[in-house]
Write a structure and sequence with these properties.
Elements (H helix, E strand, L loop, with lengths): L5 H19 L6 H8 L3 H7 L3 H23 L6 H17 L1 H9 L9 H13 L8 H23 L3 H15 L12
Length: 190
Amino acid sequence: MPRQTTDELRAEIVDAAAALIARQGIANTSVQQIADAVGYSKQALLHHFSTKAALHEAVIHAALAEVASLTAAIEPAPVGIERDRVAVNLSIDLTYRRPGLASYCVALADHEHEMDPRLFRAAAALSAAWGITANTSPTRIVQVITASSGLTAAAITAVRADRRREWRDLIVRAALNALGYTDDTLPPSD
């Protein structure tokens, strides 16, 4: 098995840190817990991130980069089912690739007092890409929250159960149903 590159190793550490911070908040997450989660010594982890603050900044930077990429890919799609389908599929891709970071993004509301202002702006941009504006109906807001948080939970479970491929179409369909599209308006799944 090929050895991990430094970038891959750092991404693994950031993802594990993000998952722990999502569950416990930054104040209740220690460097030792993160090191334990990735199977490294505390000293090895501190070789890559000199402090807990530096590691948290890396988590924030990764979240900002992922949200910016997601937003940029969603916005060009036509509003309606096409845009929602793009948003759902890209959100699943992100969760499959970086489950800890996806958990972190969903859990930010639970740790709002710890939330970096840059993340508020990124969340607002992502909400706008999903079609959420000041005039959006409460129904659409709830649909987007339900679809995005539900697909994240389902995709994380798919990762843990090693069912990414088998569950993907089911997750897409469930998220689109949560967005208000009925099975009659969706094409048949494979």
